Amino acid sequence: MTNGGGVELSALRSLLGRLPPWGLVLVIWAASRLLTTTLLATLFAVAIRLDWNFASYRSDPTFFTFSGSWDSSFYRQIALHGYPTELPTDSAGNVEPNAWAFLPVFPWLVRGVSALTGLDFYVAGVLVATLFGALAALALYRLLAPRVGAHSALWAVALFCFGPLSFILQAAYAESLFLFCVFASLGLMMNRNYLWMIPVAVVAAFTRPGVLALSLALAIMLLLRWSERDRFPWRERRAIVTAGLVIAAAGLAWPLVAGAVTGVHDAYLATELSWWTGFVGRVSFVPLTPWFLMAGTYLGLAGIVLVLVLTAGFGWWLSRRALYPLRLEVVAYSASYGLYLVAVFLPQQSLFRLLLPLAPLLGDPAIARSKPLRRGLLAGSIALQPVAIVLLWFIGYP
């Protein structure tokens, strides 16, 4: 038995060694989905048997509705009925959570798949999300491999696919589609195909908030490259400016759409703030203050200090020479996206999910160089998956 097992393992290694890089990425992705699906299915079965309530609990729960928990019901509403022309309000006239907080590309795409296949929204949503999760893994590898080498890139993909929150890559949520668009856009930026970024980033802009970080990263790269007269021709200058402006316009368009349809100029902002009330009460939005507001509310002065320390630590990490192989584009985007999160997002359960666009930083060569570090990160990520599922499906819904 032992010799037979050794032969089988040797044959498996030989087979994997003959696969092209994209094949290895897909093997990693498939293995990660097998693990995550097993964990989700196990906890779903336990929840049904013990009659636990879970996020977006339904009277006829299935594995696919379980995988379409949290705010996926809003995506379903958009797919089936579109957006409300009147904002829902409470008895005091305050705007309540509604579909305007969610962008249309993912639910429209799922609706198309449902129409073509006859599948239920949640089944089609899981299939679409899983497909784009695989494409995001491939885009991440293609983004990193030419800069840090295949070894580091594959480890980055493995950490991305097996991360504690990697179940979101197959849930009926817009995350995997957004991540694919972001990684593809970054790859185009690094190859200086600025105009080709526009269609991909515009899709991202109407998939999930956060694409403004790409336009800010383009602005940073414009400033950094401006003095490279011989290596930065006017054709590229015009292209990077055009791409930055179009992507910024797309990133700012949805609040205007919401205002035009509902007749309420701040419909989108009021909708987003409606999710804040359970954490900090009803407040006005002031850019760059949400993290301090949340931390100060629950931790006082210590929370303010913690935010400052975290911000300084992130800045230090991005400034390390070890990240140079990732290229300035990845660092510029990571800094821009970090600034975006601090500027507009109230940190709560969804924070860890919203950190996934920073996955290119997993290509840090220091991770791949250290066997204990990379193995520890992978083992820790796998161990945290069931913990995260229990916390986010049964205790604190994101």
The helix/strand class is mainly alpha
Segments where pLDDT lies below 50 for 5+ residues? none
What is the CA–CA distance across the termini?
Answer: 47 Å
Mean pLDDT: 91
Q: How many alpha or pi helices? A: 19
From the structure provided, what is the oligomeric state, counting identical versus distinct chains? single chain
Q: What Rg, in angstroms, do the CA atoms define? A: 22 Å
Question: What's the SSE blueprint?
Answer:
Elements (H helix, E strand, L loop, with lengths): L1 H17 L2 H30 L12 H4 L5 H10 L23 H13 L3 H28 L1 H12 L13 H16 L3 H12 L6 H14 L8 H29 L4 H8 L2 H4 L9 H10 L1 H19 L7 H18 L6 H4 L10 H5 L1 H25 L3
Helix pairs in contact: 2-6, 2-7, 2-19, 4-5, 5-6, 6-7, 6-8, 8-9, 9-11, 10-11, 10-16, 14-15, 15-16
Name the features.
single chain; 19 helices; globular; mainly alpha; 398 residues; 0% strand
Task: Give a written overview of the molecule.
The structure is a single chain. The protein is mainly alpha-helical and 398 residues long. The protein has a domain at 20-266 and 369-394. 70% of the residues lie in helices and 0% in strands. The chain has 19 helices and no strands. The chain starts with a helix and ends with a helix.
Quick summary:
With 398 residues, the protein is mainly alpha-helical.
